Amino acid sequence: MTATDKLLAVLSQLPSSIQWNDTSQTVYRVAIVGLNDDEITYGIRRILTRAKFRPTPSEVLLAIAITKYGDFPPQSVTHEIADAIRLGTPTHKLHPTIQMVIGKTGGLKAWRVEPPVKGQQLQEVINDVLLIRITEHIDEQRAD
Predict the structure, then answer these.
(1) What is the DSSP letter of 34?
(2) What distance in Å separates the CA atoms of residue 138 and residue 51, rounded to the nearest whole number?
(3) 18: helix, strand or coil
């Protein structure tokens, strides 16, 4: 049984208001094409330990992205950016996810006085960045 098959088996058993059928299975399968078995397996573990209900395809990708790139709570991102400003660290030396968050929130200048986004808004930006990163990774894998 492949990691994809295991993921689909897990998803089919999680509660959802949407009935599991061949179409559902195909949608999830298309979303993860290009990911390797290890990436999918780590995503399965995260889903099993955190999901009460069947996640959407983008939530599955987010779970995989978090296991691949790391979990970035908003307060950690804010702290990392504040440290970079205080220490004069060039943005290209920061973690790629942090670099992208800075780019999506108005650049480093926007963070100098006060974070331009906080809390849940910042978490949504972080999630968007992680989804962009995993999508770019998938696109690279599919091109090979």
Answers:
(1) T
(2) 23
(3) coil
60: its two tokens: 């599955």
Confidence of residue 63 (pLDDT cuts 50, 70, 90): very high
Is the Cβ–Cβ distance between 72 and 100 less than 8 Å?
A: no
Tokens of 30: 């298309």
Report field, pTM of the whole predicted structure over 0.70: yes
Q: Is 20 helix (H, G, I), strand (E, B) or coil?
A: coil
Place of tokens 């983008």: 58
Phi and psi at 94, nearest 5°, equal -85, 165
Contact yes or no for 62/32 (Cβ under 8 A): no
| DSSP annotation of 14 | S
Each residue of 18-60: pLDDT tens digit?
Answer: 999 999 999 999 999 999 999 999 999 999 999 999 999 999 9
